């Protein structure tokens, strides 16, 4: 009987290690659902951070790059902009599906500060750095 219990214990331990001790790339939460990874931080803004002499005679389109490590997640973006720091907590636009926003004609001789929050469809989010650009001096 002792030998049978020892064999049972060894087999149980082996099964446990095969099922519970392996490391893989698919993390799971408490109820065996995959854990969501937050989006990558938005980057590569246009206009580039700290740009100066931005043309005020054309429509300004802000753009950035962003991705999510989870291949099936979809992203939406909220854009925040201000003429001073800190950039406020109220977005100028929400739920953009494309990583760009047509701001319109911008004022001359003005500094703009902006940031983007990327949100995935599973509740994860990431906030960009605060970027800045300055428009041409009024002539």
Question: What would your notes on this structure say?
Answer:
The protein has 139 residues and is mainly β. The chain has a domain at 43-135: Immunoglobulin-like. 14% of the residues lie in helices and 35% in strands. The chain is built from 1 helix and 9 strands; from the N terminus they run H-E-E-E-E-E-E-E-E-E. It has one helix at residues 2-20, and strands at 43-46, 51-54, 60-65, 75-82, 93-96, 100-104, 111-120, 125-127, 131-135. The strands form 2 sheets. Strands 2, 4, 5, 7, 8 and 9 form a 6-stranded mixed β-sheet that branches. Strands 1-3-6 form a 3-stranded antiparallel β-sheet, with no helix packed on it. The longest helix has 19 residues, at 2-20. It starts with a helix and ends with a strand. Mean pLDDT is 84; it is low at 1-28.
Name of the CATH homologous superfamily of the domain at 43-135 = Immunoglobulins
Helix percent reads: 10-25%
Q: Roughly how many Å apart are the termini? A: 97 Å
Poorly predicted residue ranges = 1-28
Number of strands: 9
What is the CATH topology classification name of the domain at 43-135? Immunoglobulin-like
Cα-based radius of gyration, to the nearest Å? 25 Å
Query: Per the principal axes of the C-alpha atoms, what is the gross shape?
Result: elongated
**Structural class designation:** mainly beta
Summarize model confidence as the mean pLDDT: 84
How much β-strand is present in the residues? 35-45%
Helical run tally = 1
């Amino acid at each position: 009987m002792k030998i049978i219990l020892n064999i049972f214990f060894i087999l149980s331990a082996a099964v446990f290690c095969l099922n519970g001790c392996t490391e893989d790339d698919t993390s799971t939460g408490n109820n065996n659902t995959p854990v969501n990874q937050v989006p990558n931080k938005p980057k590569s803004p246009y206009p580039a951070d700290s740009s100066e002499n931005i043309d005020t005679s054309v429509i300004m389109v802000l753009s950035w790059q962003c991705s999510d490590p989870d291949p099936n997640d979809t992203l939406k973006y909220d854009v925040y902009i201000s003429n001073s720091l800190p950039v406020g907590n109220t977005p100028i636009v929400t739920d953009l599906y494309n990583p760009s926003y047509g701001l319109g004609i911008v004022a001359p001789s003005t500094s703009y500060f902006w940031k983007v929050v990327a949100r995935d469809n599973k509740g994860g989010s990431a906030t960009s750095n605060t970027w800045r650009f300055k428009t041409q001096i009024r002539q």
